[in-house]
Every structure is written in structure tokens, then in C-alpha cells.
Amino acid sequence: MRLQNRAQYLSPILVVVVSILLLSVSGAGQTCLTSDEMDGATRSAVQNTAAKYFDMIARGDSASLKQSSIPSLASNFAGIEETVKQNQPNLAGAHATPRPPFVLKAEGNAPLARAEFLCGIFNASGPTANAAAFVIPNLPPGTYGVNIMDVTAPKGSYTTSFVLQQIGADWKLGGLFIRPAQMGGHDSAWYLSQANSFKSKGHPLAAWLYYLEGRELAIAVPFMSTQASDKLYEEEANYKLSDFPGGEKTVDLVAANGKTYKLTQIFPLQVGQDLDVIVKYQTASVADTGQTFQENMAVMKALVTKYPELRDAFGGIVARGVEPSGRDYGTMMPMKDLK
User: Fold this and answer.
1) Separation between Cα atoms, residue 158 and residue 88, nearest integer Å
2) How many alpha carbons lie under 13 Å from residue 181 in its C-beta half-sphere?
3) What is the pTM assigned to this prediction?
4) Which domains does the chain have, with CATH numbers?
5) Which residues are 224's β-sheet partners?
6) How confident is the model over 55-86, as pLDDT tens digits?
7) CB atoms closer than 10 angstroms to residue 60
8) What is the pLDDT of residues 184-204, one digit of tens each?
9) For 34, which DSSP code?
10) How far is the CA of 225 from the CAs of 3, 92, 165, 218, in angstroms?
């Protein structure tokens, strides 16, 4: 599970791919307008609508936001409502600055299996500075607006991104992404700089985790590719570990007790004022919490023994044993107390 504030929800008609690689030229039925290419009235309508919806979120007005949503989203609004509930305290009193919007037009009589939009100027190296690409599967025909807002709030910096669909003269809410732009008071550039520093010191796991955090903080929406995001993904090869768990891949970790644990996830997470590292592993059962506590301690000690740089890179560590049912049991220890 990622950060609590990294709430994101998209209606069923706008389910998106998370990773965008190289993009082919989009089909004739898929066109995109950058902010400079659209007329002033359209640009103002998209930006003003996004600003209005942001104000609803900042006030916690889920009812008005629901009334302003496309029918398929309004009928399945629980995700959006929870997103607003979680983030409203962080966004109250915030100042939101809109980025230049995009308008995507999908033509036809049936949903597009893989709608691809190339917005702006592309060359052999990919998108230029102000260009972007979008990949959205199963997208119904229609006109959509995408507006990302950079948010400065008393509790930190965020991006709030709106996917809008034009229905008649109105722009209705079709999707919402709220993501932090900082973690522990630091932005993407800071984490990427730290990743490079850890790498130069020969600290591979810390470098990889800080790189992942820096990339995560830099991306506002997962179905959008830009020159900056492409560069971040290209840098992955400089940091990626071959023996890192994720997806269906597990990694063996041998503990001092002689037992081998199968790790399923490792990721950073802000816990209170600290940046902690979370490690999950497979276990047959967590019913005996006393036994699971001992297993958790063994995993934590084995991980910092293998990667001692974690002691300097993170304030604490959390180990969670996860049984086949998905139920888990976690133990948290500050690094200074992990002997």
C-alpha cells in the first residue's frame, strides 16, 4: 500500500495503464489539443471547471462534486468520496495553480481498446518539453479535458489532477487523482539527488528506494507521459536491483535463525515524521501474533544486516508477515532500537 494521501480514483470508463513506455503514432480517431492549440473559451472552461471542483474538494463538498460527475462515476462514487474525505484536511486553505490543460477527442461508435493521444511536438527522442502523451484503454468516444493543478497547502505540496468529460456545454468530472509532491518535507529532486549520492557510496538498496520515491513524487497521473517522466524511467537502469521483489517476483532472505523468508515487497513510507522502509514477506499464518512478531524481528534484522546502509537512510523499519488470505501482522522498530 502506498502513502495514505496518494489517493487516486478513476471511473470505470477511464481505467488507465500505470506504466507508459514508447508510444506509437495515434490513430486518426484520436486527436489532442495542447493549451496553445485550443481556443480561449475552451481553455478557460477546462481550467475554471477544474478550479471549481478543487474548491469543492478543499471544502469537503462531496455532494456537489457528485452532482457534477458523469453518470457512470456518480453511480459509483464511494472511491471519490473517500478520496475527498482523506485529503480535505490537507487541502483546506491551499492555493492551487493550474498547469496548461489538454483536450483529448476520441471518435467512433464504440470504446477504443487502446486510445493513444500525442499532444504537441514529438521528435525521434520522444516528446519535446511542452508535449505529452496519454494512453487510456477502453475509452468511450467523447471529448475529455485533463487539467493538473500544483497545490501549495499549509501541510505540504500536492498535485490534484482532474479528468473531465464534455457533456453538452458542461465539463463533468470523470476522474480524480490527488498525490503528494513532497514526502517528509522533501520533493522529487531531493530524493533523486539522495539516490545518486547513495549509489556513489555503494549503497544499492537505499539508492533504489530513494529513486523510486523521487519518481513517484514527480508523476501526477499514471496514464500521462512527458519528456520529464520519460527521462526518469530511462534512469531506472542506473538504480534497479536484480534481486528486488515486486509483482509476482519474490526474493529470498536468509535470517540469522537459519530460516529463509520470501520477500514480496519493499518500499519507503512516511510514518509520523520519519521515512521508514516497509518489508513484506510470505508466511503460512499470522494467527499466533507472538510467533509472527519473532518472525518480523528476524526479517528486519536480516534485511539491515544485508543492507546496513538502511540504518542511515531510514528512521525505522516495518516488517509485515502476510498469509495467503491476505491478512497480515506488522511490527515497527526504530532503526536505533534494532540491534
Assistant:
1) 12
2) 17
3) 0.83
4) 8-182 (3.10.450), 186-238 (no CATH), 251-337 (no CATH)
5) 134
6) 999 999 999 999 999 999 999 999 999 999 99
7) 16
8) 889 999 999 999 999 999 999
9) -
10) 22, 29, 20, 11
